[in-house]
Amino acid sequence: MSNRNASNEVAARSDALSTVSRILALLHARLPEGAALAVCWRDWALGQDGAQSPGAPDSLRRQAEQALSGPSSGHGAAGVLVHAWDNPECNTRIALAVASPRALSPGEQADWLALAQGFVALMLDAMRAHARVLSLEKSKRLQQALYEIADLAGADLEMPEMLRRIHVVIATLMYAENCYIVLYDDQRRTLRFLYFADQKDTYVADPGRDFGEEEMINSMTFALLRHGQPLRGPSSAIRQRLGLSRDPSQGPESLDWLGVPMRRDERVCGAIVVQSYDTPASYDDEDRALLGYVAQHILTALDRRHAHVELERRVELRTHELQRSNRDLQAEIIERKRAEKLQGALFRITDLAITSETLERFYADVHAVVDELINARNFYIALVSEDGQELQFPYSIDERDALRRTRQMAKGLTEYVIRTGKPLLADRAIIGELSRRGDVLQHGPPANSWLGVPLLRGEDVVGAVVVQSYSPQVSYTPHDQNLLAFVAHNIGNGLARQRAQESLRAAHAELERRVEERTRELADANTQLLAQIGERLRAEQRLTHQATHDALTGLPNRPHLLEQLAAAIHRARHGDGQAFAVLFLDLDRFKLVNDSIGHAAGDELLIEVARRITMSVRANDVVSRLGGDEFAILVEYADGDENVLDLAQRLLAVLGRPMWVAGRELFPSASLGIAVWHPRYRNGEELLRDADAAMYRAKEEGRDRCAMFDEAMREAAMHTLDLEADLRRAINHRDFLAYYQPIIRLDDGEIIGHEALLRWQHERRGLLTPPEFISLGEDSGLIEQVDWLLYEQVVHQLARGGEGYISVNVSPRHFRSPSFADRLLSMFDVIGADPSRLRLEITEVALLDDAPRTLRTLRTLRQHGILAQLDDFGTGFSALSYLHRFPISVLKIDRSFVAGIGDEGRPESLALVRAILALASTLGIDTIAEGVETESQRRALLELGCSFGQGYLFGRPAAEVCSQVLVA
Fold it and tell me: What is the rounded distance in angstroms from the CA atom of residue 664 to the CA atom of residue 653?
């Protein structure tokens, strides 16, 4: 048993004894002083045993033992109280013997006996529980050991390692530091030590050696095997019982020796032995039974291992037999395949002799066939000329001799084969020997292995077929020689047949040539005429298609669409009255694609858009590309305008799906306008115009949507068209005026400058302010011309003299022009004004649009005294990060923030103005409050630290510059 298991059992027994001692101490404490107590029991699980209080005589315990078989109660010798009883299940009897210096009263005796019966019952229950724990622990260890032995038998371990691990398992069940296992042959009376582990005996087991009985006459192991029953005890006692003499060669004496035989079908076939040299009585009957049980499992494991080894041996033997059979079969298959391959090659050569169009094709095809049979990387066919004087090479492929020219018959290897009429298989040694004998002279690069066979025509040698190798890894064999000779015979026959075919083809070709010459003249004339007619028709078709279709997408173009629209209008007016609509589609931000990833990518995007539109409409609808990123669709419908709107939404959804263009994933969108047929339309151009106007309305509403043209839009379009014409005329007539609003110092009302505001003196509508026409000017691009008219008036005003500066608003468009600063400064030079009295008011958009160019422009102007003011600060993009970079001299606080301060102000507006002023003060920038209309706003601004202001409180815009403004 292992030390750990032994410790567990000792601890369990100690716990049981401790329980008995405590119970006896409790019962003894309830007796008079000087009393003695003994208790005995005979239990179905614990057997018969007993205990007594400290100092109690052995005679008292004997009286208790006798009471186990006597009456239930009474008095024994010398007035000893004896009481015995059975438990309720009648499988346990208990007896008590008490010797007391004074007699117990009946009441004391009854109470004490009741207490004793209860405590003793509890004590026995605890002892039975300890016994069950020990039993379960032993069963668990045994079961675990058997599982481990079974696992080891199936594990892929060598036999010594498996037995070593089995020894470790046995050591968990009992003391087994010294253990050995033997196998026994009862027919030959020999044994082999499979495993041997001993602390004192230095013998090393040799599992392959057999020990005969005559070699170990006094061996206890042989005696155990002959005896056939387990043996246990000191080795000296066992030898005495079996009549064996002491033999020192059999190992040292042991104080306890336990051996059990292993049986197979009632025959002893081995044994396992454990022994102890330093502890007598190390093993008991339980260990003997346990070791016998384990021994049979070890034998089973050994049998399984032996069967596994035997099975592997047989499998290996059978595998070798199958491999040998397979090699023979493979050899036979290879041979058959070679024969089939050779037969197929001969059939192919025969077929090539008939089907090859030319001799050159025949030679190349023959080379391919030979290359399938042997290594023919370097291959040539040599033929003797008709006069026998030259050697020709009609076909040659060689990695080192690219061009074999015709040569005079000499003493080369090829001529040697032709001269002897026999095949030649030669390596460098043979070639060297032939050269030394003078039989051959080397031509071309030397080969490592050379094989040539004669070509025969009947009985005559007419040439040779040769393969050669320049690499030591490729050497030809006699088998290759036989193969090439066999093939060469068929090549010779095929060559004769091919030459006959060649002659026949030549004659047939000559006949066909003559016939063809006779018919070519008629065919040429007819062909030329048909070609001219066909070319003219194709040219007309190409011109017609080019005139009516877009070159990039292949869609119909604007003229073709207008033609289809005219037909649809005619049908609607005079025919079936079918309603129709025009959808005008424009891609959103298409210019960004061209500018960022190139026009080629833009073309690819347009092609994909055209494909998606075409796939989304019906076959009879007309999809046209008008130019750039504009498309138009003519659709007919019958069930109301809702169908057209549904189609428009589907088109937008289809176009909005992502697409890959130039390696990038794009998410295109489009704006779509719809114009529905109405009898007022006279032609397709009007429909397209209104659909285009509806499309621009969709763009204004946020893009990626559609809009239907209506009367209000028509009126707005007419108004816009008229206003644009008026704007162009006004530019030509210079109908724009500069109105000046003063900018004052808030504390004393002194005018420090003016802001020049644009006004349009319209010929019919009177004086117009910028909100009424500025957006049209931006969209049409005319605003730049209008601005320059304003700048010219302001510069003339500055040239007249006066005090203070004048500020003008500059559109972000001007900063996109690289010549803006030079043009403005040139105007000052021409007019003769001081540029330092001009200030430019720019918006935050100008800073963010093209920051590097804007910065360069502002720096150039600042060098000439023209300062920059940031207008409407805080209402657009956040430009805080740009204030450090750009030369901004003044921040103009937007009127929306100023309106929220004063007597009825809003706290949030006050906080924003305070923050702007703090920021400007930190950066050293002046501030001007716009839209000051009340005295309370002026006072609030002064309290916040704002120095300058502008608004109706100080003066409205006027055509003349004011000289003084009084603060109320």
Answer: 20
Residue 332 in this model has a pLDDT that exceeds 60: yes
Contact 133, 12 (CB under 8 A): yes
543-555 average pLDDT score: 81
Question: Rounded CA gap, 550 and 237, in Å?
Answer: 120
How far apart are the C-alpha atoms of 385 and 462, rounded to whole Å? 8
C-alpha span between 902 and 931 (Å, rounded): 12
**In sequence order, what DSSP letters do the residues of 698-709 get, joined into one string?**
HHHTTSSSEEE-
**Number of neighbouring beta carbons within 10 Å of residue 500:** 11
pLDDT per position as a tens digit, 588-599: 888 878 777 888
Terminal alpha carbon distance of the chain: 117
Indicate if the alpha-carbon torsion angle 151, 154, 157, 160 is positive or negative: positive
Question: What angle separates helix 590-597 from helix 599-616, to the nearest 10 degrees?
Answer: 140
Residue with the two structure tokens 């001081």: 834
Helix (H) or strand (E) holding 661: strand 659-661
Torsion-angle region of 437 (φ positive above 0: left; ψ -120 to 50: alpha; else: beta): alpha
What is the model's pLDDT at position 74?
Answer: 62
Phi, psi of 10 (to 5 degrees): -60, -40
In this predicted model, what pLDDT tens digit does every residue of 758-786 receive, in sequence order?
898 888 888 888 888 777 777 777 888 88
Task: Determine the Cα–Cα distance for residues 24 and 38; give it in Å rounded to an integer.
Answer: 8
Is-contact 483 349, C-beta < 8 A? no
Average pLDDT, the chain: 83
By the 10 Å C-beta count (0-12 exposed, 13-18 middle, 19+ buried), 487 is classed as: buried
pLDDT tops 80 at residue 826: yes
Interval 911-958: pLDDT, tens: 888 888 888 888 888 999 999 999 999 999 999 899 999 999 998 999
How far is it, in rounded angstroms, from Cα 160 to Cα 197?
11
Q: Which of 129-133, 462-466, 950-954 has the lowest mean pLDDT?
A: 129-133
Question: What secondary structure letter does DSSP report for 556?
Answer: B
Cβ neighbourhood burial of 437 (10 Å; 0-12, 13-18, 19+): exposed
Euclidean distance between CA atoms 619 and 92, whole angstroms:
106
Do 36 and 101 touch, CB atoms closer than 8 A? no
Question: Which amino acid is it at 431?
Answer: I
Q: What letter would DSSP give residue 894? A: P
Where do runs of H (alpha helix) occur along 671-782? 684-700, 711-733, 774-780
Residue 792, pLDDT score: 92
pLDDT classification of 1: cutoffs 50, 70, 90: very low
74-109 burial, b at 16+ Cβ within 10 Å, e below that, comes to: eebeeebbbbbbebeeeebbbbbbbbbeeebeeeeb
pLDDT at 623 over 90: yes
Counting residues of the chain whose pLDDT is more than 70, the rounded percentage is 93
SS3 of the chain: helix, strand, coil, percent, to 5: 50, 20, 25
DSSP letter assigned to residue 816: T
Confidence of residue 3 (pLDDT cuts 50, 70, 90): very low
Nearest-Å Rg of the Cα atoms of the chain is: 61
Per-position b or e across 177-204, b if 16+ CB within 10 A of its CB: ebbbbbbbeeeeebbbbbbbbbeebeee
Count of C-beta atoms within a 10 Å radius of residue 48: 11
Q: Tell me, letter by letter, the H, E, C secondary structure of 931-955.
A: CCCCHHHHHHHHHHCCCEEECCCCC
Distance, C-alpha 704 to centroid of its chain: 35
Q: State how far the Cα of 747 lies from the Cα of 947, in Å rounded to an integer.
A: 7
How confident is the model at residue 274, as a pLDDT? Answer: 92
Kindly state the tokens that stand for 254: 């042991």
CA dist., res. 731 & res. 780, Å (int): 13
Distance CA 156, CA 309 (A): 11
- Contact predicate 170/145, CB 8 Å: yes
